[in-house]
Amino acid sequence: MVADAIGIAMLGAGNVGGGVVAALRNSRERYARLVGRELEVRAVLVRDASRERPGLDSSVLTTDIERLMIDKVQIVVEVMGGEEPAHEYMRHALEAGKHVVTANKEVMAKHGAELLGVAAAHGVRLFYEASVGGGIPVISPLSRDLLANEITAVTAIINGTTNFMLTAMANDGVDYDEVLAEAQRLGYAEPDPTADVEGIDAAYKLAILCGLAFGLEVGPEAIDREGISGLTANDFAYADELGYTIKLLATGRLENGDLIASVRPTLIAHSEPLAKVDGVLNAVQIEGDLVGRVLFEGPGAGAAPTASAVLADVLELARDYVFTDREPAPLAALSAARVLPAEAHRSRYYIRLTVPDRPGVLAQIAGALGERDVSIASMIQFETDESTGTAELVLTTHVAEVGALRAALDQVAEAGVVQWVGNVLPIAGASSGAGG
Ligand code: NAP
Ligand code: HSE
Protein backbone atom coordinates (compact mmCIF):
# COMPACT_ATOMS: atom_id res chain seq x y z
CA MET A 1 0.00 0.00 0.00
CA VAL A 2 1.33 3.44 -0.91
CA ALA A 3 1.60 5.56 2.26
CA ASP A 4 -0.44 8.80 2.10
CA ALA A 5 -2.24 7.72 -1.08
CA ILE A 6 -5.94 8.42 -1.45
CA GLY A 7 -7.81 5.13 -1.23
CA ILE A 8 -10.32 4.20 -3.92
CA ALA A 9 -12.77 1.32 -3.76
CA MET A 10 -14.77 0.17 -6.74
CA LEU A 11 -18.18 -1.43 -7.03
CA GLY A 12 -17.71 -3.37 -10.28
CA ALA A 13 -14.81 -3.96 -12.64
CA GLY A 14 -16.54 -4.61 -15.94
CA ASN A 15 -16.48 -2.53 -19.08
CA VAL A 16 -16.38 0.93 -17.43
CA GLY A 17 -14.54 -0.31 -14.33
CA GLY A 18 -11.84 -1.78 -16.57
CA GLY A 19 -11.50 1.61 -18.31
CA VAL A 20 -11.13 3.34 -14.95
CA VAL A 21 -8.45 0.88 -13.77
CA ALA A 22 -6.52 1.22 -17.05
CA ALA A 23 -6.53 5.04 -16.92
CA LEU A 24 -5.51 5.06 -13.24
CA ARG A 25 -2.50 2.96 -14.19
CA ASN A 26 -1.59 4.72 -17.43
CA SER A 27 -1.90 8.25 -16.00
CA ARG A 28 -0.78 7.48 -12.46
CA GLU A 29 1.95 10.11 -12.25
CA ARG A 30 -0.06 12.85 -13.91
CA TYR A 31 -3.01 12.25 -11.58
CA ALA A 32 -0.68 12.30 -8.58
CA ARG A 33 0.66 15.68 -9.71
CA LEU A 34 -2.89 17.03 -10.16
CA VAL A 35 -4.09 15.86 -6.77
CA GLY A 36 -0.91 16.17 -4.73
CA ARG A 37 -1.11 12.50 -3.66
CA GLU A 38 -1.31 9.17 -5.39
CA LEU A 39 -4.61 7.42 -6.02
CA GLU A 40 -4.67 3.74 -5.09
CA VAL A 41 -7.38 1.13 -5.74
CA ARG A 42 -7.70 -0.72 -2.42
CA ALA A 43 -10.81 -2.90 -2.83
CA VAL A 44 -12.98 -3.95 -5.79
CA LEU A 45 -16.35 -5.65 -5.40
CA VAL A 46 -17.21 -8.13 -8.18
CA ARG A 47 -19.53 -11.12 -8.57
CA ASP A 48 -16.69 -13.49 -9.39
CA ALA A 49 -13.53 -12.69 -7.39
CA SER A 50 -11.66 -15.69 -8.81
CA ARG A 51 -11.51 -14.23 -12.33
CA GLU A 52 -8.37 -12.33 -13.32
CA ARG A 53 -8.85 -8.62 -14.02
CA PRO A 54 -6.19 -6.78 -16.06
CA GLY A 55 -4.38 -4.19 -13.94
CA LEU A 56 -5.80 -5.39 -10.62
CA ASP A 57 -4.02 -7.51 -8.03
CA SER A 58 -6.24 -10.45 -7.02
CA SER A 59 -5.81 -9.42 -3.36
CA VAL A 60 -8.06 -6.35 -3.87
CA LEU A 61 -10.93 -8.36 -5.41
CA THR A 62 -13.78 -9.24 -3.09
CA THR A 63 -17.41 -10.30 -2.96
CA ASP A 64 -17.84 -8.75 0.49
CA ILE A 65 -19.14 -5.17 0.46
CA GLU A 66 -17.77 -4.53 3.97
CA ARG A 67 -14.21 -4.76 2.62
CA LEU A 68 -14.87 -1.45 0.83
CA MET A 69 -15.96 0.35 4.00
CA ILE A 70 -12.52 0.44 5.63
CA ASP A 71 -10.83 3.63 6.85
CA LYS A 72 -8.23 3.44 4.10
CA VAL A 73 -10.90 4.05 1.47
CA GLN A 74 -12.03 7.65 0.96
CA ILE A 75 -13.76 7.44 -2.43
CA VAL A 76 -16.10 4.69 -3.67
CA VAL A 77 -16.62 4.40 -7.43
CA GLU A 78 -19.89 2.67 -8.37
CA VAL A 79 -19.69 1.08 -11.84
CA MET A 80 -21.69 -2.09 -11.31
CA GLY A 81 -25.00 -0.86 -12.78
CA GLY A 82 -28.62 -1.83 -12.14
CA GLU A 83 -30.90 -0.49 -9.43
CA GLU A 84 -30.27 -2.92 -6.57
CA PRO A 85 -27.98 -3.67 -4.85
CA ALA A 86 -26.12 -0.67 -6.36
CA HIS A 87 -28.50 1.80 -4.68
CA GLU A 88 -28.18 0.09 -1.29
CA TYR A 89 -24.37 -0.11 -1.56
CA MET A 90 -24.05 3.57 -2.51
CA ARG A 91 -26.20 4.55 0.45
CA HIS A 92 -24.09 2.34 2.72
CA ALA A 93 -20.88 3.96 1.46
CA LEU A 94 -22.24 7.50 1.98
CA GLU A 95 -23.42 6.64 5.48
CA ALA A 96 -19.94 5.27 6.17
CA GLY A 97 -18.52 8.69 5.28
CA LYS A 98 -17.17 7.82 1.82
CA HIS A 99 -17.46 10.15 -1.16
CA VAL A 100 -19.20 8.33 -4.00
CA VAL A 101 -18.79 8.62 -7.78
CA THR A 102 -21.33 6.82 -9.93
CA ALA A 103 -22.05 6.15 -13.62
CA ASN A 104 -25.49 4.73 -12.78
CA LYS A 105 -28.36 6.60 -14.47
CA GLU A 106 -31.04 4.26 -13.16
CA VAL A 107 -30.09 4.77 -9.53
CA MET A 108 -29.61 8.53 -9.95
CA ALA A 109 -32.92 8.91 -11.80
CA LYS A 110 -34.89 6.92 -9.23
CA HIS A 111 -33.01 7.64 -6.00
CA GLY A 112 -30.76 10.62 -6.75
CA ALA A 113 -32.54 13.11 -4.45
CA GLU A 114 -32.51 10.64 -1.57
CA LEU A 115 -28.81 9.78 -2.01
CA LEU A 116 -27.76 13.43 -2.37
CA GLY A 117 -29.60 14.05 0.91
CA VAL A 118 -27.73 11.17 2.58
CA ALA A 119 -24.44 12.58 1.26
CA ALA A 120 -25.22 16.06 2.60
CA ALA A 121 -26.24 14.63 5.97
CA HIS A 122 -22.91 12.80 6.25
CA GLY A 123 -20.69 15.63 5.02
CA VAL A 124 -19.61 13.82 1.85
CA ARG A 125 -20.23 14.26 -1.88
CA LEU A 126 -22.00 12.21 -4.52
CA PHE A 127 -20.81 12.96 -8.09
CA TYR A 128 -22.42 11.48 -11.22
CA GLU A 129 -20.98 13.05 -14.38
CA ALA A 130 -20.79 9.67 -16.18
CA SER A 131 -24.49 8.88 -15.63
CA VAL A 132 -25.59 11.00 -18.62
CA GLY A 133 -23.87 11.19 -22.00
CA GLY A 134 -20.86 8.98 -21.14
CA GLY A 135 -17.78 11.09 -21.82
CA ILE A 136 -19.67 14.31 -22.59
CA PRO A 137 -19.40 16.90 -19.81
CA VAL A 138 -22.98 17.86 -19.01
CA ILE A 139 -23.65 17.37 -15.28
CA SER A 140 -20.79 19.66 -14.35
CA PRO A 141 -21.78 22.45 -16.80
CA LEU A 142 -25.35 22.34 -15.49
CA SER A 143 -24.18 22.30 -11.86
CA ARG A 144 -21.56 25.01 -12.22
CA ASP A 145 -20.80 26.76 -15.50
CA LEU A 146 -24.41 27.55 -16.46
CA LEU A 147 -25.65 28.25 -12.92
CA ALA A 148 -26.20 31.94 -13.60
CA ASN A 149 -28.78 31.08 -16.28
CA GLU A 150 -32.41 30.27 -16.07
CA ILE A 151 -32.47 27.14 -18.21
CA THR A 152 -35.46 27.14 -20.55
CA ALA A 153 -34.86 23.96 -22.54
CA VAL A 154 -32.71 20.85 -22.69
CA THR A 155 -32.95 18.87 -25.92
CA ALA A 156 -30.80 15.79 -26.15
CA ILE A 157 -29.83 12.69 -28.06
CA ILE A 158 -28.76 10.57 -25.11
CA ASN A 159 -29.00 7.01 -26.32
CA GLY A 160 -26.30 5.90 -28.71
CA THR A 161 -27.91 2.58 -29.61
CA THR A 162 -31.11 4.15 -30.91
CA ASN A 163 -29.23 7.00 -32.60
CA PHE A 164 -27.15 4.41 -34.46
CA MET A 165 -30.35 2.64 -35.54
CA LEU A 166 -32.20 5.81 -36.57
CA THR A 167 -29.17 7.04 -38.53
CA ALA A 168 -29.08 3.77 -40.46
CA MET A 169 -32.84 3.89 -41.11
CA ALA A 170 -32.51 7.47 -42.40
CA ASN A 171 -29.44 6.85 -44.56
CA ASP A 172 -30.04 3.33 -45.87
CA GLY A 173 -33.83 3.16 -46.07
CA VAL A 174 -33.91 -0.01 -43.99
CA ASP A 175 -36.68 -1.08 -41.62
CA TYR A 176 -36.55 -1.37 -37.85
CA ASP A 177 -36.10 -5.16 -37.52
CA GLU A 178 -33.18 -5.21 -39.96
CA VAL A 179 -31.34 -2.36 -38.26
CA LEU A 180 -31.92 -3.81 -34.79
CA ALA A 181 -30.34 -7.10 -35.91
CA GLU A 182 -27.35 -5.14 -37.28
CA ALA A 183 -26.99 -3.15 -34.02
CA GLN A 184 -27.06 -6.39 -32.03
CA ARG A 185 -24.48 -7.98 -34.36
CA LEU A 186 -22.15 -5.00 -33.82
CA GLY A 187 -22.65 -5.12 -30.02
CA TYR A 188 -24.37 -1.72 -29.83
CA ALA A 189 -27.74 -3.20 -28.85
CA GLU A 190 -28.20 -5.70 -26.01
CA PRO A 191 -29.76 -9.13 -26.71
CA ASP A 192 -32.78 -7.66 -24.87
CA PRO A 193 -32.86 -4.15 -26.36
CA THR A 194 -35.97 -2.95 -24.50
CA ALA A 195 -34.30 -0.33 -22.28
CA ASP A 196 -32.71 1.37 -25.27
CA VAL A 197 -35.36 1.04 -28.00
CA GLU A 198 -38.31 1.88 -25.76
CA GLY A 199 -36.62 5.06 -24.50
CA ILE A 200 -36.26 3.85 -20.89
CA ASP A 201 -32.49 4.50 -20.77
CA ALA A 202 -33.01 7.98 -22.27
CA ALA A 203 -35.82 8.71 -19.78
CA TYR A 204 -33.50 7.94 -16.85
CA LYS A 205 -30.93 10.34 -18.26
CA LEU A 206 -33.52 13.03 -18.97
CA ALA A 207 -34.85 12.74 -15.41
CA ILE A 208 -31.33 13.50 -14.14
CA LEU A 209 -30.89 16.43 -16.54
CA CYS A 210 -34.30 17.91 -15.63
CA GLY A 211 -33.48 17.74 -11.91
CA LEU A 212 -30.35 19.81 -12.49
CA ALA A 213 -31.60 22.14 -15.22
CA PHE A 214 -34.96 23.02 -13.72
CA GLY A 215 -34.39 22.41 -9.98
CA LEU A 216 -37.25 19.96 -10.04
CA GLU A 217 -37.40 16.35 -8.92
CA VAL A 218 -38.65 14.48 -11.97
CA GLY A 219 -39.07 10.72 -11.60
CA PRO A 220 -38.57 8.68 -14.79
CA GLU A 221 -42.24 7.60 -14.58
CA ALA A 222 -43.30 11.26 -14.97
CA ILE A 223 -41.62 11.47 -18.37
CA ASP A 224 -43.84 11.07 -21.43
CA ARG A 225 -42.13 8.28 -23.35
CA GLU A 226 -42.38 6.50 -26.68
CA GLY A 227 -39.70 4.29 -28.22
CA ILE A 228 -38.60 3.81 -31.80
CA SER A 229 -40.00 0.34 -32.54
CA GLY A 230 -43.08 1.72 -34.35
CA LEU A 231 -41.03 3.60 -36.96
CA THR A 232 -40.72 2.28 -40.50
CA ALA A 233 -38.52 3.18 -43.47
CA ASN A 234 -41.49 5.07 -44.94
CA ASP A 235 -41.58 7.50 -42.00
CA PHE A 236 -38.02 8.49 -42.82
CA ALA A 237 -38.78 8.86 -46.53
CA TYR A 238 -41.80 11.06 -45.82
CA ALA A 239 -39.97 13.12 -43.19
CA ASP A 240 -37.10 13.63 -45.62
CA GLU A 241 -39.49 14.85 -48.31
CA LEU A 242 -40.74 17.45 -45.81
CA GLY A 243 -37.19 18.56 -44.93
CA TYR A 244 -36.72 16.61 -41.70
CA THR A 245 -35.01 13.61 -40.21
CA ILE A 246 -36.23 11.63 -37.17
CA LYS A 247 -34.31 11.47 -33.90
CA LEU A 248 -35.17 10.03 -30.49
CA LEU A 249 -35.18 13.38 -28.71
CA ALA A 250 -35.21 13.71 -24.94
CA THR A 251 -36.76 17.08 -24.25
CA GLY A 252 -37.20 19.10 -21.08
CA ARG A 253 -38.74 22.49 -21.71
CA LEU A 254 -40.38 25.13 -19.56
CA GLU A 255 -43.58 26.50 -21.03
CA ASN A 256 -45.71 28.99 -19.09
CA GLY A 257 -44.06 27.79 -15.88
CA ASP A 258 -44.80 24.09 -16.52
CA LEU A 259 -42.22 21.49 -17.43
CA ILE A 260 -42.69 19.45 -20.58
CA ALA A 261 -40.58 16.31 -20.25
CA SER A 262 -40.65 13.73 -23.01
CA VAL A 263 -38.63 11.09 -24.83
CA ARG A 264 -40.10 10.59 -28.31
CA PRO A 265 -39.11 10.00 -31.90
CA THR A 266 -39.28 13.57 -33.20
CA LEU A 267 -39.02 15.20 -36.62
CA ILE A 268 -36.15 17.67 -36.67
CA ALA A 269 -35.21 19.93 -39.57
CA HIS A 270 -32.07 18.83 -41.48
CA SER A 271 -30.59 22.28 -40.80
CA GLU A 272 -30.65 21.86 -36.99
CA PRO A 273 -27.32 20.89 -35.35
CA LEU A 274 -28.96 17.95 -33.53
CA ALA A 275 -30.14 16.53 -36.88
CA LYS A 276 -26.47 16.08 -37.83
CA VAL A 277 -25.55 14.05 -34.74
CA ASP A 278 -25.24 10.62 -36.27
CA GLY A 279 -24.35 7.06 -35.32
CA VAL A 280 -23.64 6.22 -31.68
CA LEU A 281 -22.76 9.82 -30.80
CA ASN A 282 -24.75 11.68 -28.15
CA ALA A 283 -25.44 15.41 -27.89
CA VAL A 284 -27.06 17.67 -25.32
CA GLN A 285 -28.32 21.12 -26.29
CA ILE A 286 -29.05 23.53 -23.45
CA GLU A 287 -30.80 26.88 -23.74
CA GLY A 288 -30.31 29.49 -21.02
CA ASP A 289 -31.49 33.08 -20.71
CA LEU A 290 -27.95 34.49 -20.57
CA VAL A 291 -25.87 32.10 -22.64
CA GLY A 292 -28.36 31.37 -25.40
CA ARG A 293 -27.89 27.94 -26.90
CA VAL A 294 -24.92 25.64 -26.19
CA LEU A 295 -24.36 22.18 -27.60
CA PHE A 296 -22.24 19.40 -26.13
CA GLU A 297 -21.54 16.50 -28.46
CA GLY A 298 -19.41 13.37 -28.14
CA PRO A 299 -19.22 9.69 -27.26
CA GLY A 300 -22.11 8.71 -24.99
CA ALA A 301 -20.68 5.34 -24.03
CA GLY A 302 -17.56 3.17 -24.16
CA ALA A 303 -14.98 2.22 -21.55
CA ALA A 304 -12.49 5.07 -22.08
CA PRO A 305 -14.98 7.94 -22.62
CA THR A 306 -17.03 6.88 -19.60
CA ALA A 307 -13.87 6.45 -17.52
CA SER A 308 -12.96 10.02 -18.52
CA ALA A 309 -16.12 11.28 -16.81
CA VAL A 310 -15.80 8.97 -13.79
CA LEU A 311 -12.19 9.97 -13.21
CA ALA A 312 -12.89 13.69 -13.56
CA ASP A 313 -15.22 13.28 -10.58
CA VAL A 314 -12.65 11.20 -8.69
CA LEU A 315 -9.89 13.76 -9.31
CA GLU A 316 -12.04 16.68 -8.22
CA LEU A 317 -13.06 14.85 -5.05
CA ALA A 318 -9.50 13.83 -4.31
CA ARG A 319 -8.11 17.31 -4.92
CA ASP A 320 -10.81 19.47 -3.37
CA TYR A 321 -12.75 17.47 -0.83
CA VAL A 322 -11.02 14.45 0.67
CA PHE A 323 -8.74 16.26 3.07
CA THR A 324 -10.60 19.53 3.51
CA ASP A 325 -13.31 20.58 5.93
CA ARG A 326 -15.29 22.27 3.21
CA GLU A 327 -19.05 21.97 3.86
CA PRO A 328 -21.06 20.42 1.04
CA ALA A 329 -23.29 22.98 -0.68
CA PRO A 330 -26.96 22.66 0.26
CA LEU A 331 -29.20 20.92 -2.24
CA ALA A 332 -30.76 23.19 -4.87
CA ALA A 333 -34.14 24.54 -3.82
CA LEU A 334 -36.93 22.73 -5.60
CA SER A 335 -38.80 24.72 -8.21
CA ALA A 336 -42.53 25.32 -8.03
CA ALA A 337 -43.04 24.15 -11.63
CA ARG A 338 -45.17 21.05 -12.23
CA VAL A 339 -44.56 18.41 -14.85
CA LEU A 340 -47.19 18.88 -17.53
CA PRO A 341 -49.32 15.76 -18.27
CA ALA A 342 -48.42 14.21 -21.64
CA GLU A 343 -51.82 14.88 -23.27
CA ALA A 344 -51.39 18.61 -22.63
CA HIS A 345 -48.10 18.81 -24.55
CA ARG A 346 -48.16 21.23 -27.47
CA SER A 347 -46.04 21.02 -30.59
CA ARG A 348 -46.29 20.89 -34.33
CA TYR A 349 -46.99 17.28 -35.35
CA TYR A 350 -46.39 14.88 -38.24
CA ILE A 351 -49.29 12.46 -38.73
CA ARG A 352 -49.23 9.41 -40.98
CA LEU A 353 -52.57 7.87 -41.96
CA THR A 354 -53.88 5.18 -44.30
CA VAL A 355 -57.28 6.21 -45.68
CA PRO A 356 -59.80 4.87 -48.18
CA ASP A 357 -59.15 6.80 -51.41
CA ARG A 358 -62.64 8.20 -51.90
CA PRO A 359 -64.28 11.65 -52.03
CA GLY A 360 -64.93 13.47 -48.76
CA VAL A 361 -62.34 11.67 -46.66
CA LEU A 362 -59.96 14.61 -46.42
CA ALA A 363 -62.79 16.97 -45.53
CA GLN A 364 -63.89 14.70 -42.67
CA ILE A 365 -60.35 14.46 -41.28
CA ALA A 366 -59.83 18.20 -41.57
CA GLY A 367 -63.24 18.78 -39.95
CA ALA A 368 -62.49 16.52 -36.95
CA LEU A 369 -59.13 18.22 -36.45
CA GLY A 370 -60.56 21.72 -36.94
CA GLU A 371 -63.32 21.12 -34.37
CA ARG A 372 -60.61 20.57 -31.81
CA ASP A 373 -58.57 23.58 -32.81
CA VAL A 374 -55.92 21.56 -34.66
CA SER A 375 -54.86 23.39 -37.81
CA ILE A 376 -53.29 21.51 -40.74
CA ALA A 377 -50.05 23.06 -42.05
CA SER A 378 -49.40 20.72 -44.99
CA MET A 379 -50.76 17.56 -46.54
CA ILE A 380 -49.17 15.11 -48.96
CA GLN A 381 -50.81 12.04 -50.44
CA PHE A 382 -47.92 9.67 -50.97
CA GLU A 383 -49.19 6.42 -52.39
CA THR A 384 -52.43 5.01 -53.68
CA ASP A 385 -52.71 1.26 -53.51
CA GLU A 386 -55.05 0.36 -56.38
CA SER A 387 -55.56 -3.18 -55.07
CA THR A 388 -56.93 -2.03 -51.69
CA GLY A 389 -58.25 1.36 -52.77
CA THR A 390 -56.29 3.07 -49.98
CA ALA A 391 -53.89 5.98 -49.93
CA GLU A 392 -51.17 7.01 -47.52
CA LEU A 393 -51.49 10.57 -46.20
CA VAL A 394 -48.91 12.59 -44.32
CA LEU A 395 -50.18 15.70 -42.58
CA THR A 396 -48.24 18.24 -40.61
CA THR A 397 -50.03 20.53 -38.17
CA HIS A 398 -49.47 23.94 -36.72
CA VAL A 399 -48.83 23.99 -32.96
CA ALA A 400 -51.59 21.93 -31.34
CA GLU A 401 -52.34 20.08 -28.13
CA VAL A 402 -51.58 16.39 -28.61
CA GLY A 403 -54.60 15.28 -26.52
CA ALA A 404 -56.96 17.14 -28.87
CA LEU A 405 -55.13 15.79 -31.90
CA ARG A 406 -55.42 12.19 -30.71
CA ALA A 407 -59.11 12.61 -29.88
CA ALA A 408 -59.75 13.80 -33.45
CA LEU A 409 -57.82 10.85 -34.90
CA ASP A 410 -59.69 8.39 -32.64
CA GLN A 411 -62.96 9.88 -33.88
CA VAL A 412 -62.17 9.46 -37.59
CA ALA A 413 -60.70 6.00 -37.02
CA GLU A 414 -63.83 4.84 -35.16
CA ALA A 415 -66.03 6.28 -37.92
CA GLY A 416 -64.07 4.30 -40.53
CA VAL A 417 -62.87 7.49 -42.26
CA VAL A 418 -59.29 6.46 -41.48
CA GLN A 419 -58.22 2.88 -41.87
CA TRP A 420 -54.97 3.06 -39.95
CA VAL A 421 -53.44 5.77 -37.77
CA GLY A 422 -49.68 5.44 -38.11
CA ASN A 423 -47.06 7.46 -36.32
CA VAL A 424 -47.90 10.77 -34.72
CA LEU A 425 -44.55 12.45 -34.14
CA PRO A 426 -43.72 15.88 -32.73
CA ILE A 427 -41.76 18.25 -34.97
CA ALA A 428 -38.91 20.04 -33.22
CA GLY A 429 -38.15 23.67 -33.97
CA ALA A 430 -37.75 27.04 -32.31
CA SER A 431 -41.14 28.41 -33.36
CA SER A 432 -43.04 25.19 -32.67
CA GLY A 433 -41.32 24.03 -29.48
CA ALA A 434 -39.35 20.78 -29.62
CA GLY A 435 -40.69 17.47 -28.40
CA GLY A 436 -44.16 16.96 -27.28
P1 NAP B 1 -20.55 -4.41 -16.80
O1 NAP B 1 -19.51 -4.53 -17.85
O2 NAP B 1 -21.69 -5.37 -16.81
O3 NAP B 1 -19.80 -4.51 -15.38
C1 NAP B 1 -20.49 -4.65 -14.18
C2 NAP B 1 -19.49 -4.99 -13.08
O4 NAP B 1 -20.17 -4.98 -11.83
C3 NAP B 1 -18.85 -6.37 -13.22
O5 NAP B 1 -17.51 -6.31 -12.82
C4 NAP B 1 -19.65 -7.24 -12.25
O6 NAP B 1 -18.90 -8.27 -11.67
C5 NAP B 1 -20.01 -6.23 -11.18
N1 NAP B 1 -21.30 -6.55 -10.54
C6 NAP B 1 -22.53 -6.48 -11.11
N2 NAP B 1 -23.49 -6.83 -10.22
C7 NAP B 1 -22.83 -7.14 -9.08
C8 NAP B 1 -23.25 -7.58 -7.79
N3 NAP B 1 -24.54 -7.77 -7.48
N4 NAP B 1 -22.30 -7.78 -6.83
C9 NAP B 1 -20.99 -7.59 -7.12
N5 NAP B 1 -20.53 -7.16 -8.32
C10 NAP B 1 -21.44 -6.95 -9.28
O7 NAP B 1 -21.21 -2.94 -16.80
P2 NAP B 1 -20.62 -1.61 -17.46
O8 NAP B 1 -20.92 -1.60 -18.91
O9 NAP B 1 -19.21 -1.43 -17.01
O10 NAP B 1 -21.57 -0.50 -16.81
C11 NAP B 1 -21.40 -0.11 -15.46
C12 NAP B 1 -22.24 1.13 -15.18
O11 NAP B 1 -21.82 2.20 -15.99
C13 NAP B 1 -23.75 0.97 -15.43
O12 NAP B 1 -24.47 1.72 -14.47
C14 NAP B 1 -23.92 1.60 -16.81
O13 NAP B 1 -25.22 2.08 -17.04
C15 NAP B 1 -22.93 2.73 -16.70
N6 NAP B 1 -22.46 3.23 -17.99
C16 NAP B 1 -21.92 2.35 -18.88
C17 NAP B 1 -21.47 2.84 -20.09
C18 NAP B 1 -20.83 1.88 -21.06
O14 NAP B 1 -20.36 2.36 -22.11
N7 NAP B 1 -20.76 0.59 -20.79
C19 NAP B 1 -21.58 4.20 -20.40
C20 NAP B 1 -22.13 5.08 -19.45
C21 NAP B 1 -22.56 4.57 -18.25
P3 NAP B 1 -18.33 -9.51 -12.55
O15 NAP B 1 -17.27 -8.90 -13.42
O16 NAP B 1 -17.77 -10.48 -11.56
O17 NAP B 1 -19.50 -10.02 -13.34
N1 HSE C 1 -27.13 1.93 -23.64
C1 HSE C 1 -26.64 3.27 -23.63
C2 HSE C 1 -26.71 3.85 -25.05
C3 HSE C 1 -25.20 3.40 -23.15
O1 HSE C 1 -27.02 3.14 -26.01
O2 HSE C 1 -26.44 5.03 -25.18
C4 HSE C 1 -25.05 3.53 -21.67
O3 HSE C 1 -25.74 4.62 -21.16
Can you describe this structure in just a few lines?
By secondary structure, the chain is α/β, with parallel strands linked by helices.
Helix and strand layout, with pairings?
Elements lengths: L5 E6 L3 H12 L1 H8 L3 E7 L15 E2 L12 E4 L7 H10 L3 E4 L2 H17 L4 E2 L11 H7 L5 E7 L2 H13 L3 H10 L8 H4 L2 H15 L9 E2 L7 H9 L2 E12 L2 E12 L11 E8 L3 E8 L3 H18 L25 E11 L4 H11 L4 E10 L4 E8 L2 E2 H13 L5 E8 L9
Helix pairs in contact: 1-11, 3-4, 4-9, 6-7, 12-13
Bound molecules: NADP nicotinamide-adenine-dinucleotide phosphate and L-homoserine.
The site of L-homoserine has 7 residues, from α6.
| N-to-C CA distance | 55 Å
Percent of residues in β-strands: 25-35%
Q: Pairing-aware structural class of the strands and helices?
A: alpha/beta
Here the CATH topology of the largest domain equals: Rossmann fold
Please report the total strand number as a whole number. 17
The CATH architecture classification of the largest domain is 3-Layer(aba) Sandwich
Mean of residue pLDDT values: 93
Number of domains: 3
Helix content: 25-40%
Q: Would you identify the CATH H-level superfamily of the largest domain? A: NAD(P)-binding Rossmann-like Domain
Largest sheet report: 6 strands, parallel
Helix and strand pattern: EHHEEEHEHEHEHHHHEHEEEEHEHEEEHE
- Computed Rg: 24 Å
Q: Which ligands occur here?
A: NADP nicotinamide-adenine-dinucleotide phosphate, L-homoserine
Number of helices: 13
Low-confidence stretches: 430-436
| CATH class assignment of the largest domain | Alpha Beta
Characteristics of this structure?
436 residues; Rossmann fold; Dihydrodipicolinate Reductase, domain 2; Alpha-Beta Plaits; 6-stranded parallel beta sheet; disordered C terminus; binds NADP nicotinamide-adenine-dinucleotide phosphate; binds L-homoserine
